[in-house]
Amino acid sequence: MNAAPDHEWFRAPTLTGGHVRLEPLSSRHVDGLLAAADDPAIFAWSAAPVTDLATAAAYVDAALAATDRIAFAQVDAHTGAVLGTTSLYDLTPRHRNLSIGYTWLASAAQGTTINPEAKLLLLRHAFVTLGAVRVEWHVDELNERSRRAVLRLGAQFEGLLAKHRQRLDGSWRTTALFSMTDDAWPDAEAALNARLRPE
Length: 199
What we know:
Helix 2 crosses helix 3 and helix 4 (114-129) packs antiparallel against helix 6 (185-196). The chain has an 8-stranded mixed beta sheet, sandwiched between helices. The chain has one domain (6-196): Aminopeptidase. The chain has helices spanning 6-9, 30-36, 53-65, 114-129, 144-152, 185-196, and strands at 15-16, 20-24, 69-76, 82-92, 97-105, 134-140, 156-166, 172-181. The chain contains 6 helices and 8 strands, in the order αββααβββαβαββα. With 199 residues, it is α+β, with helices and mostly antiparallel strands.
């Protein structure tokens, strides 16, 4: 499959599934993000926790200011409630690579169909619409929950990157690197669709 034109990689579409709608993040989502940030544990591994209206607004401003990041609000497709956020970043059209991350969800949405469907929508956009050949995830080595979640998407663990990012407390984190290629995408898509089908 050919790659989409470079400018398409930096366009923020709305991606809609049966359970979640990914809307381009904007200032209109600030109040919803604050409501979704209902448990400090959500941000245990984040360098940008949302704790009040000011930090919610700052989170949105930082996401929109990044030139290599397309940020989305994760919105309940049935109620319209904001459930959290996720992003595409490190967009590199020349090499047809990108990363998925900056993901967090309200506590009630964790462990539901929201995350797998959101990732299915993002992966389909990456591989089908953009023509990407590689998608990466970067996870704190110590974040076992996120590491398991990424593996369940069909990604492969590739190794550890020492002193890759700085944590909020100033310590240096080792990053666990995961990837999925376009060769693995068809099987991963089938598995994700199977997870989303009702029993």
